[in-house]
Amino acid sequence: MNDKIIGIAGATGSGKTTLVSQLCDRYNAAPIYEEWEDNPYLVDFYNSKSFFENQMWFIKNDITRMQRAIDLSSKEQMVVIDKIFLQNYTFISITDFNDNEKKICFDLLNNYVHLSNHIDLVINISIAEEEILRRIKNRNRDIELNLNFEWFQKFQKFQKNYLNIIIVK
């Protein structure tokens, strides 16, 4: 089962990173983790500020990570990627951007949507919001103390509907 890319999707706290680690251990695959801790706009995002800057950072980072996954898989290495860049469509759709900001984000993503052709399988982790909240609380990250939990409900609903239209090879 080499030369494959598996993409993991799901909300914050859904268990994406844990599943990536387990799959990589089991199948001797290369993990590509989400690099959220490097995002200089994330604190402001969680405090209901800097939505656009945060999203642009994630789009750029997610595209870079996807390109890294493609490079590794071309070298006969199986790859499991934590948070697929296609999830940015969900974030953009449910976040309060003005029309110009949405257009910029969607245009940028649409320029790279062809990268999704390299994903062989998408696993979407969908769990109850109560469980997500419990997990987030248990991991005790300072940055997540001011989360908007209504946003998670909206994310889960939209994500489930959006990922149902993704065709897996």
Describe it:
The protein has 169 residues and is α/β, with parallel strands linked by helices. The protein is 53% helix and 11% strand. The protein is built from 7 helices and 4 strands. The protein has a 4-stranded parallel sheet with strand order 2-3-1-4, sandwiched between helices. α3 (51-74) runs parallel beside α5 (99-112), α4 (87-94) packs antiparallel against α5 and α4 crosses α7 (149-163). The longest helix has 24 residues, at 51-74. Residues 165-169 have low confidence and may be disordered.
Write the layout of secondary structure elements.
Elements: E1 5-10, H1 16-27, E2 30-32, H2 42-46, H3 51-74, E3 79-82, H4 87-94, H5 99-112, E4 121-125, H6 129-139, H7 149-163
Parallel strand pairs: 1-3, 1-4, 2-3
Helix pairs in contact: 3-5, 4-5, 4-7
Question: Which short descriptors sum up this protein?
Answer:
globular, 4-stranded parallel beta sheet, Rossmann fold, 11% strand, 4 strands, 7 helices, disordered C terminus, 169 residues, alpha/beta
